[in-house]
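I am writing to request your help with a piece of structural work I have in hand. A protein sequence and the structure tokens that stand for its backbone fold form the material at issue. Please examine both parts with care and let me know of anything in them that strikes you as inconsistent. The record follows directly beneath this note.
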Amino acid sequence: MNETSENEWMRIYNNSPGFNFTLSDSEELLLSNNNFKDSLGFNNSQQVKINDILDSGSMIYFRVHLKPLIELQEKANEIFLSFKTKEGKSLPVVLDAVRVCENDIVKIHFVGVGIPNRNEYESEIIQSRDKALKELLENTESVKLKKALNASDELIERQLQQIVEFKEQHKQMAKVLSHDLQEPLRKIGLFGSLMQNLDAEVKLNLSKILKSSERLRNLLISIQRLHAIDSENFKISNVDLNFLIENVRKKFLISNNQMITLEGEFFNFPADAIYLESLLIELVDNSLKFQRPDVPLKISVTTDYFMQNIFSETEDKFEYGKFVRIVYADNGIGFDKKYADKVFNLFEKLHLNDGLGIGLTYAKRIMTLHKGSISIASKRNIGTEITLLLPNF
């Protein structure tokens, strides 16, 4: 290139719009156009380095990210940097860069345009990005959390697969309970009832067979009923507890000597009315079975609101939610408190009677479906208190 051409090129370069400049590998400003110098307030006589004209945030970005990127890729596109103007303000510029080696001297050429109207916006984005990046790199807790979340995802997938398998088994078990086991018992009862002309001893033994058959049939019906509790048929609505209690009274024809008293403020709350009524029926049925001789049965039901940690099974995690608390109490024969954890187990019986040992298991299953809880406290010859907690959040 001759001297005239070079002068012409420099004239065009110096008068070009935008922001054009060249850096040495040591970050010294080797060349810049007039618009760049005028905007930032320096002249050719000054020795300027990049850290003199970049604001602090962009300088960190230049050293940590941009310069290594240019060295690696020999170029970079659409870079946002903020320069310090002669008025002391921040001027955001979008730039392209290319790295070249001329006569064994490494240079980085930049060309860009200023975007002053986006100054505050770009500054906030850069600061937020740098802050977020720094926190992410330094926050080891977030790394642990990510690993825990990945492990949780894998656990959830395994549990979903188990649920699919369980549902299929559930369908097959329902068929067995509703037909395959019921039909032989029905035939035993039918043919046993046809055997009339028998001597007394045979009749006695036959009656025992029929009684055992009937008990087994009732047991299967109860298991089928427990097995049939299904979330797909679960319907939440606003429930009036007074209405449910009246339905229970009518079912048992409870007399004035065996009253259910309602105490406290009764309010509507979300629940499945059919399942909740079934639960109350089980509780009253238990109270009637286990009432004290010659002592009129008294049942009280109270309600209020109760705050409790919703993460009852998760260690070191707390979030309190509002629950509806229903306390059901009777003055029956009760039991020792050491058995309190066993009464909800299937077929667990604490008393010698004709009960099947399923009622409280059924009640617990209904509360689980409500994402609630059931607990029991009892004293022998004083009575039993059962607490239901239903989520109201």
About this structure: Residues 233-391 form a domain with the Heat Shock Protein 90 fold (CATH 3.30.565.10). The chain is about 45% helix and 25% strand. The two ends are 80 Å apart (CA to CA). The mean pLDDT is 79.
